[in-house]
Amino acid sequence: MRDVAVVSFAQTPYKRREDKLSEVEMVMSVVTRAIADSGIAKEEIGFTCSGSSDYIAGQAFAFVGAVDALGAWPPICESHVEMDGAWALYEAWVKIQCGAADSALVFAFGRASMGTLLETLTMQLDPYTLAPLGVDAVSLAALQARSLLDQGGVTERHWAEVAVRSRRDAKQNPDAQLAGDFEVEKLLAEPYRVSPLRRHDCPPISDGAAAVVIAAGDVARRASRRPVWIRGIDHRIEPHQPGVRDLTRSSSTSLAGRKAGVNPERLDLAELHAPFTPQEGILCDALGLGDGVRINPSGGPLAANPMMVAGLARIGEATRRIQAGDADRALAHATQGHCLQQNLVCVLEAD
Amino acid sequence: MSEEEPVRSIVTPTRLEYEFTAAGAHAEFLENVARGRLVGKRCPRCEKVYVPARPNCPRCGIATVESVEVSDRGTITTFCIVRVPSENIDLELPYCAANVLLDGSDMPFITLLQECRVEDVRIGMRVEAVWKPEEEWQPTFENIRHFRPCDEPDIPVEKLGAWV
Q1: Predicted ipTM?
Q2: pTM across the whole model
Q3: Is A219 within the bounds of a domain?
Q4: Which of the four, A95, A105, A271, B25, has the lowest number of CB atoms within 10 Å?
Q5: Which of residues 120-139 of B touch A (CB under 8 A)?
């Protein structure tokens, strides 16, 4: 295996509605900054991979339009996944492992404000039996939350505490959308959105973009004062049909964590892509994370949840803390699909 | 029960609504179109002018800053005669879809050519925009109904350079 490190990360401030910048302009701002901060010349970057969804943009081949932001002349080697940018990073990592590139630019973007996100997410479901019912992402997350309550050991108060902690931590994150001081009692006095979930249990809808540059061994050491090494990365998927899964557990996260070599004792922090508050506990259980691991110091997806970007941003936020010397080892997690259907786990470490 | 026909298909209507917000350079372009002007953007590095305006140069990957007004006359760089009906296009067949390079612009765009027999369309042909009446102008490229031939000699193909 080749050593591969994250050398730079840039993201836009996340907003409920970005109407000053188009997708291409958002991408250009983060790609330009990530490349400048990487210490690697643009012409030397061997591979580019992006994550986005044309369903979010409402335009066929919208992802091709984003290539306009790159200055792809002379022609570049480029790829795209219709997934969160964390999976684009995985593809880039594989490309580097294969020896086909020594460095890669990874970016992701989503401007969900143009469409009706909950209806769009319904389109991910089985088109014969589930999508025609119109069951949306919040309702499915509420089913998952309900099965957790029925199983016992967790309460709505725990979830409110997750929301309060996330929004409080987000005060330190200038790019967060939802930050501030809230009280658990007041949140619990709010009405249900979809029982047993209240508004604070659900992520905000966010527009934004993020970019990361990764590089192999010597290239990373030359470019960065403190390269953040990807010690392990793996992703696993569960069945599409929520009805056949045990929604109270995340076996795909457990497996991905094992394959990525997660050792909870040695972690300083974890950036978890848990868009709904009950999912944070599911992920901590799946990965064996105890009290010694700080969860989502960035505020996490409850502070900003740009579709197709939030997973890559978890890797970026974890990297940022290691680069700043606040942590030596971190876990970053990304999810896709309903109720944590597919999960990626990445272990990051300083030298 | 065994007499019943098996289900072979189901209909599940799918419709998603989007509200597109033009931002940055696109918004500026459409505001100018609403005033009957075609204003593109120039790349500060390679100096190519893009109409419709782009927020950045796709070749250089940098932001375009300077606005440049261009003519509504141009030259056909390539074209296609459409003889197949399409559900959402209400035009008499056959019709001509043409790539037009406006004078002052460095990137052709695809548009509709009318007021011309399809047999007469040629690469290098000079064309002009036919605008809707001014009172109907909106911030949309549909202010230009179509292009039509104008009374100017063709541009020789060899002078169209990389575009043909």
Answers
A1: 0.85
A2: 0.93
A3: yes
A4: A95
A5: none
